Amino acid sequence: MSLQADDVKNIAHLARIAIDENDIPEYAKNLSKILDFVDQLNQADTDGVEPMAHPLDMAQRLRVDEVTEVDQREKFQSISPKVEAGLFLVPKVIE
Fold it and tell me: Which of 25, 30, 34 is nearest to 9 (CA)?
């Protein structure tokens, strides 16, 4: 697919970017190459290929769920203006 100067100007307008008039031919050439590559990818036979969430077929490594810090709730709540039953009390902001 070959883009013309007007196509590049329209794309630049839609993307709200400024392009120097002298750079338009280079942009047209590069964007045309990208669209040709996408067209080439679209021609690949993908019948029978299951969609994948990730290109590598492996399980996510998870860390061990263990406590790594000491409980400091009492310390933090001691400097809070209002606390009740172990909860921070905050002013109502929504009616």
Answer: 25
Angle of CA points 37, 38, 40, to nearest 5°: 65
Half-sphere exposure of 58 (CA within 13 A, CB side): 5
Distance CA 42, CA 34 (A): 12
What does pTM read for this prediction? Answer: 0.51
pLDDT in tens, 41-66: 999 999 998 888 878 877 778 889 99
**Helices and strands: H and E segment counts in the chain:** 3, 2
The answer to whether residue 21 sits within a structural domain is yes
Answer yes or no: is 23 within a domain.
yes
> Measured between alpha carbons, how far apart are the two ends of the chain, in Å?
57
